[in-house]
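Loading example: each entry is read as two labelled lines plus one structure line.
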Amino acid sequence: MAENQKFFHSVYLDKDKCRGCITCIKTCPTQAIRVRNGKAHIIKEFCIDCGECIRHCPHYAKQASFDHMDALEGFKYKVALPAPSLYGQFNHLDDVNIILTALTMIGFDDVFEVGAAAELVSDATRKYLASHAEPQILISTACPTVTRLIRIRFPELLDNLLPLKPPVEVAAELARKRAVAQTGLKPEEIGIAFISPCPSKVTAVQDPLGIPHSSIDVVLATREIYPLMLSAMKEARVNPIEHCLSGKIGVGWGLSGGEAAGILLDNYIAADGIENVVRVLEDLEDEKFQMDIRFVELNACPGGCVGGVLNVENPFAASSKMKHLKKYLPVALSHPEDFPFKTDMELTEEIAYEPVYMLGASMLESINNMVRLEKLMRILPGLDCGGCGAPTCKALVEDHIRGKGDIHSCTELLRRYYVSGEDPFEVLEEENNL
Amino acid sequence: MSCNDSLHFQYVVSKDDFTHAGSASSDVKNKLKKMNVDASAVRKVSIAMYEGEINMIIHAYGGTIDVDIYEDRIVMCLKDTGPGIANIEEAMQEGFSTAPADVINLGFGAGMGLPNMRANSDEFNIESEVGVGTTVTMTIYFT
């Protein structure tokens, strides 16, 4: 991976639309956004591509970069990888094959369900749990935002990450093998396009963790493919082709708790929504769960992947529709023992801690900066109003200490100066010898 | 750069305040995470201090926790105002508990508090006098 690819992000700002309000800085779970000179800037080291800013921006200024259909033009054979959450986007469906057939009518030569690969990952997870007593608690690596959150904020939990590839990568590898076998083309002539519910999957393809490079060539957004599919759905309903390789387990992966259900154990925790994810990770880190837990499934989006910001349908409606769709499906349709293609399931690279929040390069510098931080915190009003462009007073002070911000941008202290005529910053500097 | 001797924080822990239990240890943990302290030391600190904090809430009449962070170590001094421990040796045994039933219902009171505190500390000292209070001092070195 080239150094400039590190901390690549799909989430970006459309400067023309940004009004410099504080909505995004307040909703960002990693405090990765600052409003500077009237525009919201993303601090790339802190951003985990969760998409919360996209979800909340009232001016639609926060966007996700993804590929478009024309990115597939150079490939001789095009395979779509639909995420299970795609199935929840359409109305009045009782057969997954209708969706898969519609994909073959809008420009794809073949379809390989991420849900099918998910069932193989579920099987690999069961085997991994059975053969590894340690660590006692394994955390899913399927949601790239969660993995990125752990690598910057929860270093002690890195050893608990399940070292298996996410289903989307397994799907890409198997889809390419199958396409090569069916067409006789070279692997590089096959274009593998994932239809993604979220920006974090775009990031995971550009800058994957745990594997040297992604096998996915193109990442499309569900919301961009959706209108194309809608027009094909009517015809697809008439005579759907049998493509479906995923059962209850595979489809269930698109919903919170689905991955955990697939390991067929009941001593698991499944949390969704980034705030809940943070809470579970905090408690895991502190060993606060006084119960037997073997597996932890965490999804950054509310409801699981159905809550991804690149989806179209209301996540709760999508969830209901997916439950209906999988109701009469077999438990699983893809099994490793008779699946015609194989690939390695395990991650091959270590996921390393990225200490982005450090206050100093050494312990001594950190202590001195922490002392400064405590002093400066006593001077700031503690309103966490966001007026300075940082989400909290503490974030402003940390920026100041890191040389990335200035406490003189505190609007409340400026207001007090205006009212009293007494310079609060002068007092600050005198009192604290700063 | 001038060297401050240590970074000092004090936390006040109130008796029976379960809803805030763990907030002091969580605060210290989040500070250490920004301070070049290795992850395993952070974990030991947060577990040892959390157990101590819970003990002060369950068994004691509340108290204070003084935390001093140095370049190479952290010292946590937990001081409560009673009732004190009559038999320290017994209290240090794994599984020994005097926690009341309502506390056990909350998932606490397994008799692992003091043993866990000692297990996670590099230096551990406990002094107690019935009717006066208990002081636990724990030191954890950063590697």
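Residues 114-131 of chain A form the longest helix (18 residues).
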